[in-house]
Structure formats: C-alpha cells, structure tokens
Specification:
Largest sheet: 7 strands, mixed
CATH topology of the domain at 79-293: Rossmann fold
Strand order of the largest sheet: 6-5-4-7-8-11-10
CATH superfamily of the domain at 79-293: Vaccinia Virus protein VP39
CATH class of the domain at 79-293: Alpha Beta
CATH architecture of the domain at 79-293: 3-Layer(aba) Sandwich
Strand content: 15-25%
Number of strands: 17
Helix content: 25-40%
Radius of gyration: 21 Å
Structural class: alpha/beta
Number of helices: 14
Shape: globular
Length: 419
C-alpha cells in the first residue's frame, strides 16, 4: 500500500522533485485527504457555498530530510491574511530577544523582514534604533504594522521586488524571515532574491519549525496548504549551497511553534564555515533517522493511532453530555480537525484571540469562531486545545475555567486530559 502511495501522481498534488535539494521522487508517507487552505475562513454569507479543496499529501525527501507538500494555494492568497503573531504573549518576548540579536548583526545597517506581518519583530528592532523595512503582500496586515510605526513594502519577495528595494534603500545587512520560509513554494527563486538584496558581508536569519520536532512529537498538523515545508537543517544547508551561501550557525528553539530553529546563513566567500552547534544539529538529524523511510512509515502509524484515540475521547465526553469548545482557530488546528473529522458534532464553537477571525467559520468543518470571552459566557466543560503549541500560556490564562472544574483535551504529542 505504501509503495502504491509513493508512486501516486494526481494532478499536481504531489511533488516530483524536492523543492530544496532537487532530488527526485520524494516519498509520500502521509496522505491527509482533501483540505481547503487552513486560513481560508468562511464568512457567514458563504456558509452554504462550496470551498475549494486540494489534496494534502505529505512527502519527505530522503536525501535532505525536507518534509513537504505540493504548492496548491491559489495565486495571491496571501494578499489578505488572518494570522498575526501578536496574538500570542510568548511571541512578544521572543521577538524582543531576536531583535537584540539582529541589531548586533546589522551594526547600524538595514534590517529587512520577509513576511513582516503586523510588525511585531521590526517594532522591537525600531525600539533599539535600527533601520528597518518590512516585506509583506498583505495590505490589511501592513496597515496594522504601520500603527506600530513599521514601514512595509507591500509585495511578494521575488527578484524584481528585491532589486527595487535595493535601488531605493541599498543592500540589507540582515535579512530575517520568521515562520515564513515554510510558506515558500519556489525556494530557489526566493534564495535568488536573497542574493539580490543581501549585502556581501550580510547575514540571512531564518526562524522556522524544524522537521526533527515534527517527527519526534507527531506534529503532522504543522503541514497545511500555507505551510508547504517542514525543514531539516540539512535541507536548508543543501539549498544554500546552490547559491554560494552556507549555514554558519544554528540554534534550537524548543518552545517556539512546537519546536523551531534559528539558522544563520552567510556567503561562502566570507569563509566563516559552520559552527560546532550547526555541525552537531546536522549530525543529530542523521542519527535521528531523518533520511530513513522507516521513520516516516512509523510516524504515519502514530498519526492514525492519535486519530482513533482523540475520537474515542470525544465520543466518551459527548456520551456524558459534556459541552466541548475548541481553543485556537489556527491553520494547524484546522488540519487536525479536518483530517480527524471533528466538526460541530463534537465542538460547539472555537475561540481565538485574533479579532480578525471572530464571526467567521473554520474551513471544511464550518465551526463558528468566537472571542475567548465566549468561554465564560458559554461555560464549556472541556476545551479541546488546537493551539497546543501555546498550551502553557492558555492554561495560565484560563484560571477561571479551571476553577470551575474545566478540563483540557490536548491532542499532541499524545492525546491527554489536563485538569
């Protein structure tokens, strides 16, 4: 069966070459079914209309460890976007720390943030006296950044837009991209654009979820149509090599987005070489089985078992007459509930701190999305934590819910009840 899936070829729903290292025939190990894009939330007036849906076929390159799906997101999808990092308290302190790192690297030079979103990171850089410019195609999000005093060049990042900024602002001493690199379908064009704008002695800094944690913690929900890749450090290193760039340092970020890494890349001509930390991370990936087919077959089995366990727990709660709400209308959460078939039969509503999502409905499952205050208004017995990567934060914030006996169902890495 797995061999048949590996050979599947359906209307562009699978990749035939790795988007990072260009090796042929990535291995299809986890077909998740048809999904609408995870951030394609539904307006009330559109509830009765069909949504576009695309196969979510998760593959892995066994030459570099890149976990990836085919890029099927409609053109210009990111022109109006609904995710903002400022909705999570943890990201404020994280970006403040990162801003200090970038300021030191920039040394007064220009810092460009690709996928700058609502300006949370660059506002922290500005507070340190940095020269900054954001790059983002979403006009609605750029307006939010402007309220923070962050200037945004509103466009996708490609060689022409990079050349335009280069002509107006000069080269960037630091280019940073946080949780955006995994959105990029054409990585080689993106890196070509980096080479246009980056100063000869400049640094590219990438923060992105890491494939090792995806495997170790069964984080299958971190792949969705907007997140087309889950990177190993090896995949980034091999990609950089096509452009006379090299990974010079890497840092593990276990508490960010379920486990991420911060990667520093410079031109090979600088002669920096890889740090001991980067070399150790590369060795860990190989030792951890990231290039072995068996690793991914076993992961797919864990995902299937997780679905059985979660549905059994929800069925038992509903049989007891308990009221259940979901916490987090995130794209990753939508991947999970869509794949496991969790809809309004189980969840009365979802809550989210992002006001851009309030009054809308989840894609595929059509569950209403409400402000977090709905927890106190409706008083569910159980919160199904779809934003499990921020569970510690959610647990602390929901003291009143816990005080009246509310419980949390946390699906990853193993489904469990937390009181």
């Amino acid at each position: 069966m797995l061999e048949q899936l590996h050979r599947a070829n359906v209307d562009g729903s699978v990749l035939h070459t790795c988007r990072a290292c260009l090796a042929p025939d990535p291995y299809l190990f986890l077909p998740l079914g048809d999904h609408a894009p995870g951030q394609m939330l539904i307006a009330p007036e559109d509830l009765d209309k069909p949504q576009p849906a695309f196969p979510l076929n998760t593959q892995v390159c066994l030459q570099c460890g890149l976990i990836e799906i085919a890029d099927q997101v409609p053109g210009d999808f990111f022109r109006h976007y609904l995710y903002v990092p400022s909705g999570a308290t943890r990201m404020h302190s994280h970006f403040a720390d990162l801003a200090a790192v970038l300021a030191e690297r920039a040394g007064g030079g220009l810092i460009v943030d690709i996928g700058s979103n609502d300006g949370l990171l660059l506002s922290a850089c500005n507070a340190l006296g940095c020269r900054t410019l954001g790059f983002d195609p979403a006009e609605n999000i750029a307006a939010m950044a402007a309220e923070r005093g962050v200037e945004t060049f509103i466009d996708y990042f490609h060689p022409q837009s990079a050349a335009h900024v280069l002509g107006e602002r000069g080269p960037a001493q630091v280019i940073v991209t946080t949780n955006t690199f995994n959105h990029i379908g054409d990585l080689h064009r993106f890196m070509e654009s980096i080479c246009v704008l980056l100063a000869q002695d400049g640094t590219l800094v990438i923060e992105v979820p890491r494939a090792m944690e995806y495997i170790d913690h069964t984080e299958f929900d971190n792949i969705y149509h907007e997140h087309v890749s889950e990177f190993s450090l090896l995949s980034i290193a091999k990609l950089a090599g096509f452009f006379d760039l090299e990974v010079t340092d890497a840092l593990s970020l276990p508490d960010i987005h379920g486990g991420s890494m911060r990667v520093f890349i410079n031109r090979k001509a600088m002669g920096l070489g890889a740090s001991d930390a980067a070399e150790a991370m590369l060795a860990d990936e190989v030792a951890g089985g990231m290039l072995l087919r068996e690793t991914y077959d076993e992961l797919a089995e864990r995902v299937a078992a997780m679905g059985v366990d979660v549905i059994a727990m929800l069925d038992e709660m509903k049989a007891q007459g308990l009221k259940i709400a979901g916490y987090g209308a995130s794209a990753r959460g939508n991947t999970l509930i869509t794949h496991f078939g969790i809809d309004t039969r189980y969840l009365d509503f979802l809550v989210d701190r992002n006001p851009l999502k309030h009054g809308l409905y989840s894609p595929n499952t059509r569950i209403p999305i409400r402000p977090v205050e709905a927890i106190e208004e409706e008083q569910p017995d159980v919160l199904f934590v779809l934003a499990w990567n921020f569970f510690d934060e959610i647990f602390e914030q929901q003291a009143a819910f816990r005080a009246r006996g509310g419980r949390f169902l946390v699906p990853l890495p193993v489904p469990r009840i937390v009181a």
